[in-house]
Amino acid sequence: MWPYVIISGVVYSGSILSVLDRRTSVLSWTVLASFAIALSAFIGFRFEVGKDWIQYNYIFKLITELPFVEAMDFTDVGYSFINWLAFQLGFGISAVFFFCAVVLVVGLMMFAALTPYPWLAMAIAMPHIVTIMAMDHIRQTTTLGFILIGLALLARDRVWAFMGCIVLGALFHRTGIMCLVFGLFLVQKNRLLLYPAVLGISAILMKFLLADQIGVYFLRYVETSAGSRGALIRLLLNALPAVGFLIYGKYANLPEKLDKVMRAMAWAAVISLMVLPLLPSAVIIDRIGKYFLPVQILFFPLLVSLLHGYALRFIATSLLCAYLFLTQFYWLYTSELADYWVPYKMTQF
């Protein structure tokens, strides 16, 4: 348990101290960058941590035994290629995990830089994105990392880079291609022509990436009435900051295109919660809802920045970090899946 306490304690402490200054200093950025490197190693070089750790090792083993073409078709092509490349270069599964960890952490850092308090943005990601998703849902976490990188590039008005990051992320988890729909909110000229074009391209890519998996997803998540532990809580915890962002997002002063996409994500997070009772299975909407997590990463630093006075910001951030710490370690202590996470072990080189 102590490795989780140490790595989390650093970011929570950094968050509390960072709000005492309106600007992130060079020293603070240097320490945060060092933390990002340590976090990448913490996630990437774990050993026998996460419920699906054995399954991903099995995938790696099978891919290394298949011809290249068959290996690329074994699972999502991006993840298959990273496994194949790691083996060709003489590395093991830890190299695959480390690559995926770096994509996520780089995405978190680039996106956190858009917020008033980057340390706090990183702290928001610790309980669920880092502790649970990154340690287990490797492919979808990598997809989320590429989406975060895309959003950071969109802040620089690089629309096609944003769209490209979504496509690249979808090569690791096919459901990520659905985020291409957010491209509709970036159309400004010739909308009568571009709306159908974006929808058409999205439909083609969805068909290409999802067609052979729709039956599998339907069988796994609907016909079997599969449930998702804590789906309602996760969707609620995503919808609440989404509502907050829809109300106070105008104070973030985001670039116009990024603001449109983030508002669309916020609405998607709210709608996800609303439609949950109407669905035969919570798993599908719960999985898709993970792509809307950037909203809460953006909202909470914004909320703290709107508070007047260092003392008020310090108290609010301290309470928020205490809440994040308690939820993170409550899960690690009480979840029926916690035995897959505790004790934490690192790969021996």
TrEMBL record:
The keyword Membrane applies. The chain crosses the membrane at residues 26-45, 89-113, 119-138, 159-187, 193-219, 231-249, 261-279, 291-308, 314-333. It comes from the Bacteria. InterPro entries: EpsG-like. Coiled coil: none annotated. Pfam families: EpsG. The keyword NAD does not apply. This is EpsG family protein.
